[in-house]
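ok new one. same drill as before - structure tokens go in, u give me an amino acid for every spot. 166 of them this time. try not to just spam alanines like last time pls lmao
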């Protein structure tokens, strides 16, 4: 496995794809903040979710965005990522969605705009730290990668479909 960090452009596109999925879940299902819970759950488990649902080896360590961009999350010495390590890796990214769910459960009159401002502020600060670490760490490891002992790597062409020509 290569020791160089994964292409930053590919990581950005993968993050946008996964963010859009979480955003759609959050926005479409707004009843009692359930969408925020689903969006947060997707972000937390995205690196293990599709493999656990489909049991297809091509999804190991890959969210939808990472699969599209041919990236993968690998644990220590290339080990696979499970729900636990995915959640450990992604909680800094999911915290805003999950806090939004909690605030959405509060009675409307008791929720101050300051609650939402705090959530946005915390999410923004964590996001800036994560981006700074991806850009400055020699292996592109962000805070979540350090917590879960993971890193994002590029994946070569996959199995039989790699041999086909169009």
């Amino acid at each position: 496995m290569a020791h160089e960090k994964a292409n930053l452009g590919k990581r950005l596109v993968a993050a946008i794809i996964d963010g859009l999925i979480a955003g759609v879940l959050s926005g479409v299902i707004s009843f009692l903040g359930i969408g925020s819970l689903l969006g947060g759950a997707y972000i937390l488990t995205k690196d293990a979710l599709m493999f656990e649902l489909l049991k297809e080896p091509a999804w190991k360590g890959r969210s939808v965005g990472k699969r599209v961009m041919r990236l993968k999350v690998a644990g220590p010495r290339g080990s696979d990522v499970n729900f636990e390590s995915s959640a450990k890796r992604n909680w800094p990214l999911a915290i805003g969605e999950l806090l939004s769910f909690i605030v959405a459960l509060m009675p409307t009159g008791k929720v101050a705009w300051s609650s939402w401002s705090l959530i946005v502020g915390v999410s923004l600060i964590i996001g800036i730290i994560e981006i700074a670490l991806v850009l400055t760490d020699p292996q592109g490891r962000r805070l979540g990668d350090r917590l879960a002992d993971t890193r994002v790597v590029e994946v070569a062409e996959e199995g039989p479909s790699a041999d086909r020509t169009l």
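The CA atoms of residues 71 and 146 lie 18 Å apart. and btw The beta strands are 71-74, 151-154.
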